[in-house]
Amino acid sequence: MFMEWRGLKLSVLSDPSSTPKRTRHTLDNVRPARPAAHWLITAPLIVLLIGLALLWLRDLDFDSARDLREGAQSPTITLLDDEGFVMTHIGDGQGAYVTLAEMSPWLPAATVAIEDHRFHHHIGIDPIGIARALMNNMLAFGIVEGGSTITQQLAKLAFVGPERSFTRKIREAVYALSLERRLSKDQILEAYLNKVYLGGGAYGVDAAARRYFGKTAAALDLAESAMLAGLIKAPSRFAPTRNLDRAQSRAEVVLKRMAEHGMIDDKQALAAIDAPAILASHIRADGDGYFSDWVAAKSHLYASARQPKLTVQTTFDRSLQRQAEAAANAVFDRHAVNVGANQLALVAMTPDGRIKAMIGGRRYKESQFNRAVQAERQPGSAFKLFLYLAALDEAIRPDNRISARPIDINGWRPRNADDSYPRQVSIAHAFTHSVNTVAVRLAEHIGRDKVLQKARQLGITTELHRHPSLALGSAEVTLLELTAAYATVANGGSMVWPEGIVSIADGQQRPLYQRTIFNERILSDDVVNAMTGMLQDTLIEGTGWRAQLPGFVAGKTGTSSDYRDAWFVGFDRNLVVGIWVGNDDGKPMERVSGGGLPAMIFKDFMVRTRERDVPVTPLSPPSATSEDAIAVLSSD
């Protein structure tokens, strides 16, 4: 059996014995076609929907609709730095309107396979598809599948807009029915492929092909076409510039779906899966690439065919970015090669959350995966910020004393880095020297739930567990969120929401968005002062001594098990800086701790940037000599 697509034969292997030998991948897990009989359950609703659509159709004015060939160019997003100078244009002239004949034949085939395999057989709305989606959603007790056809999606892009309402779905269905009466299937598919958003600021397949692969839509191969088609469902989530592995996995789903529907054979699918699409070298310099990609992904929500030009005022500071890169390169080039460290990430923000510099990896042109924003890693002792803040909320003071003796929780026995287990130490000493037995004992005393609540209160959104090792930072976080949590302390206890956008305006400079500073106080003065004192002591006499600087500076180190991740987060009165060092594959480094490379990068960066003439008044460090103790904490 085979099908024709503009002269290209897309055959299906009908003889099982002719299937090529499978090595890394198989197609055995392709989802079989599901029976369509259950759609009869929702037939009355579908008939009602069509009836309402036909009644509305009489009064619809299609003469006012724009030509579907307009708006093929990607909406232009102009990014400005914090001084108002242009950083980059995203989407400007990236792509052109291309006909089906001018694009790779794999593109329409892949899109139909993954988005609407009944495209050539329905009238613009698909009762079977709607019924299947409704049934699957009911079985899942949530929204897991949509029932929109390609024609409906084109109607939404060109005429209806993104609003979510029942009325919008009716209008979308009306436009879809009309499009099917006025245009051929090829014309509908062509217009759709030229308008759909595919991530990275790219609207339309030609813009996306140039953005990701450095070629026109005509030159795409099967693997590249499958990757682009896979982006349609969630362009920001699946964009290869954000996570290439995820984009390749999504493309594999598309290829299997193409084989399932007879558009390619097993051999073609397996060959494309074994040689997945990869990104072309980017033309944008390393300097602002990670930050620009992150901001553009947030900004494009305000762009549309009706709002094709945006001007985005960002918080980005070119000078600080250059200094951050210089500091990271200086330390990394001197020390990292011999200790097995290959990657780093850095975020620098003001105490109120305005991001001034961002490094998402060693070299943007080699990898666009943003380790500062997207990577989730174990923060080690840097997570103890939340534990000790929760303890301070419970009226536990830095000069209270607590046992550092070994502790056993259901057979789990945490160790201290120096294998020292004194009878008692102060809370402040335990924090500044990262005494693990104290951290675990303290978490068990106040309750792990309070530690979790404090982490959530300060903006940690990643999944957190309740295991006793939570106190030692075994849960995974992102560098951006962890740095913003420390900024809450630097900000005097007011909640910090990290942001790279100050404002967004349309082509006529009419405001669409303006950053709002939240002044919600979530930490008391006493708690902030006590925590800041302990963070200062960490640099004076604790694990962060390599980050010492004249004047006011505070911070905390973190090291995950087996030296897989090394962290340092610190701040002065002007900047809050978070740094991660490690490897993408999680390979252990050679005894690289948070007090090593990350602390050294922090110090180098701050030396380059801080204003030496700003008067500072360091907070008094907490006393560690008080005999005041909490009995329950002092016990083994």
- Corresponding CATH architecture of the largest domain: 3-Layer(aba) Sandwich
As residue ranges, the low-confidence spans are 1-41, 282-286, 612-636
Overall tally of structural domains: 2
Can you summarize the main beta sheet? 5 strands, mixed
Number of helices: 21
Helix fraction, binned, reads: 25-40%
Could you say what the CATH topology of the largest domain is called? Answer: Beta-lactamase
Terminal-residue CA separation = 75 Å
Outline, from the CA principal axes?
A: elongated
CATH homologous superfamily classification of the largest domain: DD-peptidase/beta-lactamase superfamily
Q: What's the number of extended β-strand segments?
A: 14
Q: Report the C-alpha radius of gyration, rounded.
A: 28 Å
Mean pLDDT across every amino acid position: 82
Strand content: 5-15%
Structural class of the helix and strand makeup? alpha+beta
Strand order of the largest sheet: 4-3-5-10-11
